[in-house]
Amino acid sequence: MRKTVLIVEDEFLIAIDLKLLLERCGWCVLGPAAAVEEALELLDDELPAVAILDVTLRDGSVTRLAEALRERHVPFVVASAYSRPELIGGEILAGAPNVGKPTEEHRLLAVLEQMVGA
Question: Does the chain have fewer CB atoms within 10 Å around its N or its C terminus?
Answer without folding.
Answer: N
